[in-house]
Amino acid sequence: MYRSSAWMFVTVFAITLASGLLAAQTVQAQTLTTLHSFAGLDGYDPIGALVQATNGDLYGTTFYGGSNYNGSSYLGGGTVFKITAGGKLTRLYTFCSLTNCADGLAPYAGLIQATNGDFYGTTQDGGANYPANNGGSVFKITSLGKLTTLYSFCSEADCADGTLPQAPLIQATNGKFYGTALGGGVYGIGTVFEMTEAGAMDWLYSFPYPNAANGATPEAGLLQANDGNFYGTTINDGTNSNSAGTIFEITPPTPPGTVTSIYSFCSLGAFPDCTDGASPEAALIQDSAGNFYGTTYAGAKGKANVCPVGCGTVFKLSAAGVLTTLHTFQGPDGEILYSGLVLGSDGNLYGTTAYGGANKGGGTLFRVTTDGATFTTLYSFCAQPKCTDGAYPYGTLIQATDGNFYGTTGGGGDKDKGTVFKLSVGLAPFVETQTSSGKVGSAVEILGTDLTGATSVTFNGTSATFTVNSTGSAITTTVPTGATTGTVTVTTSSGVLSSNKPFAVRE
Known about the structure:
The protein is mostly beta strands and 507 residues long. It has strands at residues 31-37, 51-52, 58-62, 79-83, 89-94, 112-113, 119-123, 137-141, 147-152, 170-171, 177-181, 191-195, 201-206, 223-224, 230-234, 246-251, 258-264, 285-286, 292-296, 313-317, 323-328, 341-343, 349-353, 364-368, 375-380, 398-399, 405-409, 419-424, 432-433, 437-439, 443-447, 456-459, 462-463, 466-468, 474-478, 488-492, 495-498, 504-506.
């Protein structure tokens, strides 16, 4: 199966965990449960992250498979699916259902649920200009599976509008969507774009060449940070001769946006011995103190490494732009990171490696503290015969409001076509606001588990009026007068649930 990367090749080794290579950690019990094994017609090769919707279900995409999968000459155009926490999966849509795949083909990234309740995503291939120009598309889909193609890339000469979007969208505080395209643009090495709910498109930035100090080929999505600006990563170029990628900042609200390079990877050592890592392929996350966290696909090749280009890293970037490598992977603890991180409700970072681990190189789930002092391998995939527990978790984890982590594997499962899994590490339920900030009077959706009968909602101690939806999985409220930035709490019959992140009240 195809995976794009900065180095365009990955060698997978079968690895046996060497005694004494990693310091043993005392961990609380964790349990992995396979919720669904894909078989082809229901999807094949889920790559992107899942999203928890306001109805309590999880939604995602598969790169291949669907109703047009035939098991031999054609692997299918990919799907959109939903799955309950109990593992009941429903295929909502199969791509390439229209002539010449005008509806899109091969969704590489996961979905987001917008404030209007619909889901938005991208396809890597297909679109109205396919097959002459294989640009990809942006689409929206309802919870019932009605799909609308909003934009087809390569609509401009020489694909000046971009091509091959492989990242999920984000919805910013202004209600618009923002994303990246891996290729195309004025110089052919990628773009950053802005889009309205109706599909009107503007281009904020085309990465320039040959002066590529800000980077090239942005494979990851964007993050709207606490300061309101957007931050992203590229897998190539930068200010170093190693061309190992960058972290960049783009300032709204134009277009065009103003772009500043924040960090260029492989600043420490020559490739592949880049102790700071190389080629960040996933989106950044940020904590309430303003620090950024992320992963690199490669680099940091040390003496113990078995990876030809380095096994990858977890890093922290301070608000002042100082980068600290929190963990360097070495094979038995995992190798090659396509995915990003999630900041768990316990304050630790959780993530996946696509390969490596203790079992046939099937990949790992891990936890690392935000100071890098403690690293724990939580699970090594391919632990069961024929990898029926899954293999190769390419996507970023999510933590649902029941406290558990959910994710996908691109391979393994009963039919070796990928899985959806749940990882329980003993964390308690919480609530999560669908948007991270808002003004007084603005509408806010609060996601949770079993919110029926809730008696109180507060924003940093200030009470708000609210309505619980029919499934008990979400609350609709507005930011109350007098609210300040801080924790959102919901009081239920079983106790008080607090938000996993502070909600920022904007002026």
